[in-house]
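User: Hi! I'm a student and our assignment asks us to look at how structure tokens line up with a sequence. Could you show me two examples?

Assistant: Happy to help. In each example below, the sequence comes first and the structure tokens follow. Example one:
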Amino acid sequence: MNTEEILSQILSIGIEYGPKLLGAIIVWLIGSWLIKLFIKAIGKMLETKKTDASLKTFLKSFVSILLKVLLVISVMGMIGIEMTSFIAILGAAGLAVGMALSGTLQNFAGGVMLLIFKPYKVGDYIEAQGYAGTVSEIQIFNTLLKTPDNKTIIIPNGGLSTSSMINYSTEDKRRVDWTFAIAYGDNATKAEQLMKNMCDEDSRILKNPEVFIALSELGNNSINFVVRAWVQASDYWAVYFDMNKKIYEAFNKEGLNIPFPQMDVHIHNKA
């Protein structure tokens, strides 16, 4: 093969693949530039929504890698490389991994949804999945709760993102409910006024909404009153326990009896 034939083959190859290669390079450069712009836009959107820093970094990296893989496949296809088999193998591998890690991926997706929509945040007291505690950490796969007795509960995010939960910290005010009982024969009006006075004297109980006191039930052994008062969420338990003690002491002082279950036994003598 002489020099002219070699140059001819190089020229023919250049003519055949040159435009494709040039087009692929242009597509790669433009695609990379557009991906950078898109990632910056996502970053600004996540900052506007005050997304968790760890989630923001992960989402930007994940989207960037995904778009670059698609760009590489497009560029290789433009050059003339057959990508059908490669895409099929990649899809089959992805399906196999997804099935093997279905539970983990569910928790991962749940963690992403929790960090984006934020049904609770660190420091909130929640009840979910049969557990209750203060949220100490929100991870990608799990949420960590601290119970009042300092136990750590690890709950997978998959269940948290798809089931019901109670968040006690979303509102700054909470209603405290009590049920107090007096014995039959005691003065119901006096007991009601005493309970109202106890609530009025406690500065932690809010004046608006007003305290609600009513005779709720004539029970088998007692006359039951329901008391409902609004307090700041941070004062909930302190007010609840203090009022129980104050009412007990006030009832004793005023001669109001706190009943206990009774049973009448009738004895029949057979002659």
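Example two works the same way, sequence first and then tokens:
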Amino acid sequence: MMEKEEKKVTGAYEKAAEEGIDPRCIPQTLNSLPPVGDEIVTPHYSKEENDVWGYLYNRQTGLLEGRVCDEYIKGVELMGFSGKEIPSLKKLSSVLYEATGWRVGRVPGLIQAQNFFNLLRDRIFPSTDYVRERHEIDYTPAPDCFHDIFGHMPLLTNPNFANFYQKFGEAALVAKGEQQIFLERFHWFTVEFGLITNSAGRRIYGAGIVSSFKEVDHALGSEVQVIDFDPYKITSQEYEVWHLQPILFSIDSFEQLEEGFNYWAKKEGILN
């Protein structure tokens, strides 16, 4: 009996690349482990680069007041961010390791999925160390260090989120075919564009919202349809990278995110 041919699936970023989108959005392949923790050499940032960071930091922190979740705020305080200069990845790695056992690895930009998932499995967060130019202050097509540091790292100080993200990496290394697209969607609607609703009300936690001027207002506005967290609904929901998101999902807690993902991934046979 002939084996059924596996259906070719294409991710959102791959589709964008095929449509001639900015080459910075085409993932690079790492042939070896990137510099991690104390191995990272901090660049000498120019005044202009630090000024861009400071502008973005001050604008976003003002915009996020009363809109971002407490876990994120606690993470920012622990990381010691300021608007004065771009933080050192080496120092941030030390803070994360003490908090949840995660470290930071310095990467050149977007990296191939296999590289990315291998790092997550090993509790290494891949981060760029360059900041966008001023003419891209409101939007950059590919992640820069403001997105990676300000958007992602604070929540990695939260034990439940940190554990979830490691398990995500483990599951992604096992996933095949359509399961890979399911995981891409799960990542998009939680890590990048997740909301949380609890006694404090509805708040933001996804890095794609936290680090975006336009998305902060939009995500909590009346134009967005918010759906309660459900891994099966999330993995069935398509999205487009280049538009404000019309549909978002909200968790009740980071415990729910961790436990819900683990349950779904085990049912899918991609997590032990």
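Here is something you could point out in your write-up. Confidence is low (pLDDT under 50) at residues 1-7.
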